[in-house]
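Q: Got a minute? One more chain.
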Amino acid sequence: MEQATCVKRAAALINEFCKSKRRSFLIGISGGPDSVALLHIILELKAQGQVEELYAAHLHHGIRQSADEDLAFVRDKCRDLGIALFEEQINVPELSAKTRTTLEAAARNARYSFLERARAASGASFILTAHHMGDQAETVLLHLLRGTGLSGLCGMRPATGVLLRPLLTTPKSELMEYLSLNNLAFRVDETNLEPCCMRNRIRLELLPLLEHEYNPSIIKSICSMADLLAQDDAYLDLLAEKALEEAALPSCGYNRYKLSKLEKPLKSRAVRLALEKKGALYDLQRGGIESVCSLLNAKTGAVRALPRRMQARTSYEALFLETLPKGNAEAFEKPFLFPGETETPAGRFIASWAEELKLGEGAAVAYIDADELSCFKALVLRRRLPGDRFHPLGAPGPRKLKAYLIDKKFPKAEREVPLLASGCEVLFFPGGTVSNSLRVRKTTKRILRVEFLKNEP
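A: Always. Here it is, folded:
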């Protein structure tokens, strides 16, 4: 018997993206027609020796009353086929209210988080989902109607990390034909038949209208466009990655002046990529990316708040993307003046020349080798940030500032005092000590005395 076209398409896509990895798959199965078809397609490939291991995962969303019947159906099918099933139940409406996201977004986020947990538990190499050409066309139109750039018009990718979509080049009609020819039962989610959300309205109303009135092959046309644009998008990503690497600084940030000289399309893409690397892209709209881009030419010390307790901050030529600690006090950054006096929200730093090193003046005073200090660029006063490193006076080497504060049993309230830093390197922490690299030596020619005077409550 000749192999079905949808099986050939899935095999071709798997062969393209699984050349050097173990073919151990976890399939997300809802019990609907698409996921049931995918399950049996992969079983065919397994019987031919093209797949090594196969697992299934089902998430009960706690939305529909019939979801219990869906779970029972999936359990029975996996038992009959001898496939290990991972299952979990979550109250998506409650999660939606808690996270202040739409029901659809909350369900999607919960589903992918669950699939990754199931993949890790099973030891599978990849997660397979049953998205097909119709889903791709819906996604592209959804992005277009909401407003998007080039990446959004590319829709879903066949492979993203450990996630594979083997049916993305397969029309829905081929899947339904496959189910019919093989007499395979499936469940129907009644909410998919209601125009209750934008994606459903696109599927039930807009796409049929476009097919009937404008282009009978509109789904194929949209998917072809998405594929072509994805090639351009991937090339631009390579250019942005290269530009970002060239702008990277040893101090964990990026040279914002180098980034500012890029052409606008590449500039915003490089910033977007930098945000993505830090996990700050989630929940960030295009206006947020443009806001960070505006920092490339802003004055030093400028700050932009980002979702998930993150911020973008300028420091002389550097742009930093940082995660703020929980309960972090108001962020600020001030250029350090020496000699001179610098005001911060928590107190004043007074830097003055000294003839000699004096002991016993307290932990709020530091004596510093001024010539060594001059070797550091972008000296600023700010609060501590994740990733800060500190080489305590007399210690064998640098360590994380957080670990130093814990070891020295600093009270939490005293950990938020301003500090002197250059990039991620802390040079003076009032209440602690000065960096070993700035210690006064016998050969020191210029001594700088720095004192922190805390504001009165």
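A: The chain has a mean pLDDT of 88.
Q: Perfect, thanks.
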